[in-house]
Structures are given as C-alpha cells and as structure tokens.
Fold:
Amino acid sequence: MAKIRDKFDKDIGDILEEANDKHRNFSKSGVPIFFWFIFLFFAYDDILRYIGSPILFYPLLFILMGILVVIALVGTAPLS
Structure:
C-alpha cells in the first residue's frame, strides 16, 4: 500500500510541476510584459492604420471568422 501511495504522490508531483511549467511559459518568452504595454502605447496608431488597410483587413477578418466558427463548432461538439 505504501508503494502505491508513493507512486501516486510522485505522479501528482510531476503533473503539478508540468502544469506550472506550462503556466509560466508566457513569462519565459524573454520579452518582459511591460515591454508589450510600452510597444502598444507607441505603436497603436500604426497598428490601427495597418488594420484599416483593406488589403490586410479583409483577409484578417475572414481568418478571424474562420477561427471563431471552429471554436463555436468544437465547443458544441458532443463528447464521445
């Protein structure tokens, strides 16, 4: 019984460590989070101009609609 408990504790510890590593993955990208806020502050006008361009806006719109349709379909799929 002690072997089973030890194996269970080890497996749970490994799963917790793996989940924590996945959770911290965003901060391990090498780019500080505050940099993204500074980048958005100084580049928002360029980003809006790029999005406003019809050459970029329509393909981005269709890609976004496709992603949303897939998410909606996957979210309503029955579990088997």
